[in-house]
């Protein structure tokens, strides 16, 4: 016989927590690199939306820049030009701008 028989190796018997250490490490890595910063940014956005008031200048996620005329729970009325008022959903406000930004544009 020129070809020898090949036998399967015995299964490694290491039960317990040691098998899950790499998975736990990957989860912790994802938590600190992806999940935690995203949760922090979402919290800052919620606080910014809660602090908005009439007269603030904002930019929406669609690129519309305007001054807040009226605020409700779900919608914001923006004055984008003289006597031109549009209504946008409150979560679409992306950034609160400094006073005078609209005049400098």
List the helices and strands and how they pair.
Blueprint: H1 21-51, E1 57-60, E2 65-71, E3 75-81, E4 84-89, E5 93-97, H2 101-104
Antiparallel strand pairs: 1-2, 1-5, 2-3, 3-4
How would you portray this structure in words?
By secondary structure, the protein is of the alpha+beta class. It has one domain: SH3 type barrels (Roll). The protein has two helices and five strands. The chain has a five-stranded antiparallel sheet with strand order 4-3-2-1-5, with helices on one face. 5% of the residues are buried.
Beta-strand segment tally: 5
- Please name the CATH architecture: Roll
Briefly note the structural class of the backbone. Answer: alpha+beta
Q: What proportion of the residues form beta strands (DSSP E)?
A: 25-35%
Integer-rounded radius of gyration: 28 Å
Poorly predicted regions are none
Which terms summarize this structure?
SH3 type barrels; 5-stranded antiparallel beta sheet; 105 residues; 2 helices
